[in-house]
Design goal:
The structure is a single chain. The chain is of the alpha/beta class. It has a single domain, classed as 3-Layer(aba) Sandwich (Rossmann fold), CATH 3.40.50. Helix content is 35%, strand content 20%. The chain has helices at 21-27, 41-53, 56-64, 87-94, 106-114, 124-129, 149-161, 179-184, 197-207; strands at 78-81, 99-103, 119-121, 135-141, 163-174, 210-217, 226-232. A 7-stranded mixed β-sheet has the order 3-2-1-4-5-7-6, sandwiched between helices. Helix 4 links the parallel strand 1 and strand 2.
C-alpha cells in the first residue's frame, strides 16, 4: 500500500477573494461606459485590458530613452506603428518631433484623435502598402510579439522601403530570456509568440538595416524586462 503524505505545513487548499481587475480598468478608462456600444467589442476589451495590466507611467519612463534615437534634422514625419494609448506620440510631440500613428484598435484611435494626434485606424502592413510617404523612422513598441512570422517579415521589409536614408527603425518587445516574462507572456491573450533579440536583429539586417544597437530597459532580478532593436537605413 502506498502511504500518502500531506505537503509540509501549507494548507491542503485555500480560497482567496480576488480584487476586480475589470473595475480597476474601468476606473482608468478615458471612454465612458455609455459610449462602449460604439466600438468593436474586442477593441474595447483590449483597451480595458491595457488599462488593467500596463502602467502608463512606467511605459512613458521606458520610452523616454528612445527619443534620443529619433532623427531631428528632417522635414519628414516619424511613424509609430501600433501606437496604442499614445505614450510615444506624446513624447515625440513634447520634444517637437512631427509624428503620425497607425493603430488597429478603434477605441484607442478615437481617444488619440480627440487629443489632436494624427492617427489612422488601420493595420500597419495595409497602411504601408497603400502610401507613398517616406518617414524619418518607424517604431513598433510592444507590437512584434503580436504578429505572425509572415506579417512581421512583411512589416520590417515594407518599413525599410518607407524610411528615408539615415532614418531608423525601432522595435521594442519583451525580453524572452527573462523567465518572468515567459511565465506571464500569455496573460495577454493576443500575444502570438515571444521574439528573441537575435531573431529580430537578423530580420532587420536581412531587410537592409545597418548599425544595429540594442537598448535594454526595466531591470529585474532575472534580467531586463524589455529590449529594443534600433537600426539605421
Amino acid at each position: 500500500m502506498v502511504k500518502l503524505s500531506l505537503p509540509g505545513r501549507k494548507p491542503f487548499y485555500k480560497i482567496e477573494t480576488l480584487n476586480s481587475l475589470y473595475e480597476n480598468a474601468l476606473s482608468k478608462s478615458e471612454v465612458s461606459e455609455s459610449e462602449f456600444d460604439k466600438f468593436f467589442e474586442k477593441d474595447l476589451y483590449y483597451y480595458l485590458f491595457e488599462n488593467a495590466f500596463y502602467n502608463k507611467e512606467i511605459i512613458t519612463r521606458i520610452q523616454k530613452s528612445y527619443v534620443q534615437f529619433v532623427p531631428k534634422n528632417t522635414d519628414k514625419y516619424f511613424l509609430d506603428a501600433g501606437c496604442g494609448r499614445g505614450e510615444f506620440l506624446e513624447l515625440l510631440r513634447d520634444n517637437g518631433i512631427k509624428a503620425k500613428g497607425v493603430e488597429i484598435n478603434s477605441v484607442e484611435c478615437k481617444i488619440l484623435k480627440d487629443k489632436g494626434f494624427d492617427v489612422e485606424l488601420n493595420d500597419i502592413v495595409n497602411y504601408l502598402n497603400n502610401t507613398e510617404e517616406v518617414f524619418s523612422g518607424i517604431s513598433a513598441i510592444e507590437v512584434v510579439e503580436h504578429l505572425s512570422f509572415q506579417y512581421l517579415y512583411d512589416f520590417i521589409h515594407l518599413a525599410y522601403e518607407h524610411i528615408e536614408q539615415g532614418g531608423i527603425i525601432l522595435l521594442e518587445t519583451l525580453n524572452c530570456k527573462n523567465v518572468s516574462n515567459l511565465k506571464n507572456f500569455y496573460t495577454d491573450l493576443t500575444h502570438v509568440k515571444p521574439v528573441t533579440m537575435e531573431s529580430l536583429q537578423f530580420l532587420c539586417e536581412k531587410a537592409g538595416f545597418k548599425k544595429l544597437q540594442v537598448c535594454k530597459s526595466f531591470p529585474h532580478k532575472h534580467g531586463y524586462i524589455n529590449y529594443a532593436i534600433i537600426g539605421e537605413k
